[in-house]
Amino acid sequence: MTGGALPAQMIPVLTTCQELRPAMNFYRNIMIMRAGADRLLFSYISSANFAISAEVPNVFQVQFTTTSMVPAYGSISPEALKQALGIPNAMPLSFGGPPHGPFPSVVTYADTDLRINRGDTYLPVLQRLN
What we know:
Layout lengths: L12 E9 L4 E10 L4 E13 L6 E13 L6 H8 L8 E16 L4 E5 L6 E3 L3
Antiparallel strand pairs: 1-2, 2-3, 3-4, 4-5, 5-6, 6-7
């Protein structure tokens, strides 16, 4: 989820929150995760361009533009989080660039408040927050 900036690794996700604003072509994904042997708590925040095709309205197209990994507590230093994630010291915890993707996400609506997304390597079940 770093656009190839880091080697692939499995990191537990505790919760996911997605903000979708189709009229603005905006998508934000916030995940609370744990990393490393000490299970350091951090937020993974990614923003993207977002589109829904009229021909295939149940497939979201997402092009990521920015990614940030933020320690959840002041007691977790950026250096400790980098070490837990295997991030080189020279690499920032927040980075952006030209959009990469699009990455399709097939969406199934169970009802007006429950949505299932299916991507290549993930299957989140999301409930609408009002």
